[in-house]
Amino acid sequence: MARCISNYGFLLGIVIVILILWTIVAGDLRNRVSLWTGSNSKFPDFSHYENFTHTLSNEQFPTNDKDRRIIVIGDLHGMNESLTTLLNRISFDTQKDVLIHLGDLTTKGPLQDSLAVLSFMESNQILGVRGNNDQEVLEWRAWMDWIVSQPGGREWLIEVDDHWSDYELALEKGDMLALDLPPSSMKKPDWGNKVPKGWKPLGDHYQVARAMSRSQYNYLRSLPLVLYAPAGHVFFVHAGLLAADPSRKLMHPKQPLSHWPLIKQRKHDISAIQKAQGLALLSGIPQNRDPWVVQNLRSVRKKGRPTRSSNKGTPFSDLWNEIMSKCSGFHDSNARLGSVTRLTGYQESQLAHLPCYPSTVVYGHAAGRGLDVKRWSIGLDTGCGQGRRLSALVLDAKSFSSGVFGDHTSDFSSEATDRLHAEPLFPGAVQHHTFQSLLSATDSRIKFDHAGEARIISVKCH
């Protein structure tokens, strides 16, 4: 009798464990199915903004090494041949030079060229920032990964590749019954519920996302939205940054450049002060923490509203330079670390100096404005995706000389002096490769940082 009770208890325990496991599995399955088929589907976050800002170390951004250069390239848009031509022209050395891109690596060019650009960047682990077009590609790939994780999702994605254009036509005509597809586990009218509103499959971004490798996707995910190099007092961003919150007065205590930063025991360390102010610009200005702004900003409209329009509002670079030109360094003998000078009305409008050191922002995205060089900002998107030019900023140890601030001068050439055929894209970074030096480069010299000098080199895109 005791043995029977014992066996009964053992079996009862097994049944309870099975019921618990079934409840967990069934609940997960029910959630997945409802997420997949429900008309009010809620999508996971496809944006992956977890790596927003990266601060470059002195090794990643060498400012004192006369044998190393920092080369910054504008928007590529899949123009692989033009990239190779440009790297040849500047004699890019994979072992010594640091290469930084400003985002928008793909689309507009042929699909295979976009994949070649991605392959080069990923295999060599090139530093850079994520552009708005990169963001769209990344989000499509994240969506695809989510789709194939759902029951029947992989098969459905294949149907999308083959028949989405038919679906959109039937949807436009309001006749979903006319959509003739192979049998599917999903109802045909529910196709639109599987894709976030406003997204359109089969476009350029979709095609790159579908074709790129897992390692290339991971590379795009790893790209920050902003790179900050304290050693050079410079920011790299795809679209733009603001030097002050336009919704507040310039001398408002929450404006990062309205006062010297509080740095205990290092108040005479200029490098530490510049770094603290640079980090404060990124953390203290709300617009600079907004992914949409740093990937799309071109201008600022009335009431401080950022816009991607080139024709409305004030170019962000004008606002940046207006503020940076007011930075006085320590020339103001009355300035004290941690002090906040409060001015109002007319006094603030006449303000000549701010308690700060100026920083430079290097950006892309604004192809409509072309090569846009001002004292404290450099726009490098020269419309390669539209068949115009691809430009690079070349920095070396001479670019970061100390000294007094000066005015920008430049001698930009309007056209290249010749046309060259690009060499095949060289293989991975494990090989030492120096690009052939070509003397016919379109080469302009500009002032950079406080009293340094930089070069801008461009090639014709084809």
What is the strand arrangement across the widest sheet?
Answer: 1-5-6-10-12-11
Q: How many separate helices? A: 11
Q: Detail the poorly predicted runs.
A: 25-40, 332-350, 403-441
Supply the helix-strand structural class: alpha/beta
Largest sheet data = 6 strands, mixed
Strand content: 5-15%
Helix content: 25-40%
Give a structural overview.
With 462 residues, this protein is of the alpha/beta class. It contains eleven helices and 15 strands. Helices cover 32% and strands 13% of the residues. Helix 3 crosses helix 7 (214-222). The longest helix is centred in the first third of the chain and has 36 residues, at 2-37. The protein starts with a helix and ends with a strand.
Question: Can I get a quick summary?
Answer:
The chain is of the alpha/beta class. It has helices at 2-37, 80-89, 111-123, 132-148, 153-173, 204-211, 214-222, 270-284, 291-296, 316-324, 345-349; strands at 53-55, 70-73, 98-101, 127-128, 226-229, 234-237, 299-300, 306-307, 314-315, 360-363, 372-374, 377-379, 389-395, 442-448, 452-460.
Topology, please?
Layout: H1 2-37, E1 53-55, E2 70-73, H2 80-89, E3 98-101, H3 111-123, E4 127-128, H4 132-148, H5 153-173, H6 204-211, H7 214-222, E5 226-229, E6 234-237, H8 270-284, H9 291-296, E7 299-300, E8 306-307, E9 314-315, H10 316-324, H11 345-349, E10 360-363, E11 372-374, E12 377-379, E13 389-395, E14 442-448, E15 452-460
Parallel strand pairs: 1-5, 2-3, 3-4, 6-10, 10-12
Antiparallel strand pairs: 2-13, 5-6, 7-8, 7-9, 11-12, 13-15, 14-15
Helix pairs in contact: 3-7, 4-5, 4-6
